[in-house]
Amino acid sequence: MPHLGPPLKIPFAQCRSREFLNLSEVDAVIAQMSLTRSPVRNQALAILLFCQALQPIELCWLRWCDLNFAEKILLVTRNRTKTTRCQSQQIVINLQPLCPTEIEVLQQLYEQRTTDWIFASERKQRLSERSLHHIIRQAGELASLALSVHPYMLRRSGLYYRAALLLKPLGLSLRECCLLWNWHQTNIPFSAEAEQEYRAMKPQQKTAFLAALERMRGFSGITTKENTIDYLLGAFLLFPHLQGIPNDFWLTPPGWESGNFAEKI
User: Fold this and answer.
1) CA 263, CA 253: separation in Å to the nearest integer?
2) CA distances from 217 to 224, 225, 240 (A)
């Protein structure tokens, strides 16, 4: 019998029509965690993926010493490798404020702790990224979502939501945001009409847009502006009309927009 080899990976476009969740779907995934084997841990996983917009590996490497309940601060070591969270000589640390909902569920999880890992497996080891993917997918199935859900969808929705909060008071359209990005960050030639549209925007809007871009870069841990802009413009995927965005979905910490997240050590 011939060896068939491993199954071919199915392209994402064939698995799902989009790579983010609407807020109602975020709610559904978090709610269904109560039906899983470790409801408190799994609910905390989903909430932090959305609220803190963490990468799976960043979430799985969190220890209780990274959490300050008194100051309501989470220390996140930014890293994209799978062997250790502190490989490079220059380490980027984010000090991110926690909202009341996050504090409440983490306190419940702290009372159940068996290891120094915030998110531990049933074998009292660090929860693996593979297990995290399984937990999130299972919650999506329990919620009867039409999409196959994975952790990055919660992270991406969280970043879109934060970006929408930053853009909402600026009164900019998606086209205007694209014009601002192309004018300041690319060498794309402008037509006379596009240049006229750009110059019609208020100086305060231009300054605030660039500040929002830097704020998203600091919060997300993304190093390049070219990758950050995708999440800033993605706010219009989640909210085509930004004025309709709720300001307190999952109780986003007040004042986070003006925070200085990243430190290098």
Assistant:
1) 20
2) 7, 7, 22
pLDDT in tens, 198-207: 999 999 999 9
pLDDT of residue 135: 96
Q: In which order are the strands placed within the sheet that holds 73-78?
A: 67-68, 73-78, 92-97, 262-264
Cα distances from 153 to residues 1, 86, 209, in angstroms, run 40, 25, 25
Taking alpha carbons only, the member of 12, 2, 22 closest to residue 234 is: 22
DSSP assignment string, 180-213: HHHHHH--PPPPHHHHHHHHHS-HHHHHHHHHHH
Residues 38-95 pLDDT 10s:
999 999 999 999 999 999 999 999 999 999 999 999 999 876 555 455 454 566 788 8
- Distance separating alpha carbons of residues 106 and 243, to the nearest angstrom: 32
Backbone angles phi, psi at 83, to 5 degrees: -105, -40
pLDDT in tens, 162-215: 999 999 999 999 999 999 999 998 888 889 999 999 999 999 999 999 999 999
- Does residue 129 contact residue 56 with C-beta atoms inside 8 Å? yes
Crossing angle of the two packed helices 174-185 and 203-220, in degrees rounded to 10? 80
CA–CA distance, 244 with 23 (Å, rounded to integer)? 12
Residue given tokens 């070591």 in the structure block: 77
> Domains (ranges, CATH) in the chain?
21-155 (1.10.443.10), 159-249 (no CATH)
The candidate with the shortest Cα–Cα distance to 233, out of 136, 166, 133, 183, is: 166
Amino acid occupying residue 256: W
DSSP code per residue over 33-77: GGGSSSHHHHHHHHHHHHHS---HHHHHT-BGGGEETTTTEEEEE
